[in-house]
Amino acid sequence: MADENDAAAGSAAAGGASTGRGSDLAREALAAARKQNAAKRKDRIPLTQRSGGSTRSLRRRRWSGSGPDFRDPQPLSATLQKFVKTAGAGADIGKATLFARWPQIVGAALAEHAHPVSLTDGELVLQCESTAWASQVRLMAPQVVRKINEAVGHGSVRRIKAQGPSGPSWRFGPRHVPGRGPRDTYG
């Protein structure tokens, strides 16, 4: 019987599972877990070397101090800017700003002869009063894009599509006959 106990103790010391009491098994499991944890900690890079800063900035604050904190009240402008970025409403605000301030942004001469119709995916569509003005706007496009981006925000307009005047639509009602219809040349 004593030989069996010695064999069990020898197998436990060799790293095998022992058949001892529950508290002995728990102590052995705890010691093994501590050894594994110590080996993992030895292989880790210290926090000061990881972040390049002090460990003070990485510690969790347990109480409020007199310094600024993320829980402090924020200015309304900062909160609104964060909301606009996360909600994706920036493009709509830029579009509304461009349409509302069109004469101030591009100048009275151009605004008198061309007005914005749509702004989709960085392409601004302008409706011009004549084909001559549409050609003129196409030639002035790089300067106009630069002015718009300075006023509204960089990258809001990438290209301009200038259209001449459109003729009246001859489609009246839900049914119509295919073909040209009673049209003349417009523009």
Which properties best describe this structure?
mainly alpha, disordered N terminus, three-stranded mixed sheet, 51% helix, 187 residues, 10% strand, 3 strands
The global form is elongated
Rg for CA atoms: 37 Å
**What's the tally of helices?**
8
Secondary-structure element series: HHHHHHHEEHE
Q: Give me the secondary-structure category.
A: mainly alpha
| Strand order, largest beta sheet | 1-2-3
Helical coverage, percent range: 40-55%
Q: What is the tally of beta strands?
A: 3
Largest beta-sheet characterization: 3 strands, mixed
How would you describe what is shown here?
The structure is a single chain. By secondary structure, the chain is mainly α. It has a domain at 107-168. Helices cover 51% and strands 10% of the residues. It contains eight helices and three strands. It has helices at 2-13, 22-43, 47-51, 76-87, 90-100, 102-106, 108-113, 131-152; strands at residues 114-120, 123-128, 159-163. It has a three-stranded mixed β-sheet. A hairpin with a 2-residue loop joins strand 1 (114-120) and strand 2 (123-128). The longest helix has 22 residues, at 22-43. It is elongated and about 105 Å long. The model is unreliable at 1-14 (pLDDT under 50).
